[in-house]
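Hi all, long-time lurker, first post. I run a small reading group and we've been trying to get comfortable going from sequence to structure in the token notation. Rather than ask abstract questions, I figured I'd post a concrete chain and ask someone more experienced to write out its structure so we can walk through it together at our next meeting. Sequence below, copied exactly:
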Amino acid sequence: MIRCHITDRKQVGGLGPLLECIRRNLDLGFDIIQIREKDLSASELLQFVRQVCRLPNPANTRILVNDRIDIAMAGGAHGVHLPAGAIAPSRIRSIVPAGFAIGVSCHDVPELRRAEDEGADFAVFSPVFGPLSKSSFLPPVGLDGLQAATSRVTIPVLALGGITIENAPLCEKVGAAGVAGITMFQK
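-- Answer (accepted) --
Happy to help. Here is the structure in token form:
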């Protein structure tokens, strides 16, 4: 099961505690760390990404930056995570190094299909359950909705929204390649 930790420094008390949380998750062999610190200035975000990329990474965890290709490349990250409807991953590939990972957030089957058609490496699909860390403008799709969505594409789909240790295996059972989360992975 793919595990993707999406960061939120406000939940852990700042950048210092978040860096320690990321260090622990790198040691635990997470597959992806998505740096999602949207309200940092470009220079602050770049500095943080560089700090994260200098940490020991024994399992070769991919470090992705949310929505900032420039920061991801300048900071030495392994990829970027885009919102639905952003520039096509296939267009980004012309300016990034080989192996640069591109994930896309999706909320319905048409968005998943678009992400796949445009060359995303994986998609994060939400909300599966009611989110634990923030409110959602969309109703949860539940396990049935997740299963219907994952059956329509071949790229890996990670379940997001209200994911817990208890329901993560259920997400995988209905077709998710793994889970993404904020609250679940910031302890």
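A couple of things your group might point at:
The mean pLDDT is 96.
The first strand starts at residue 2 and ends at 6.
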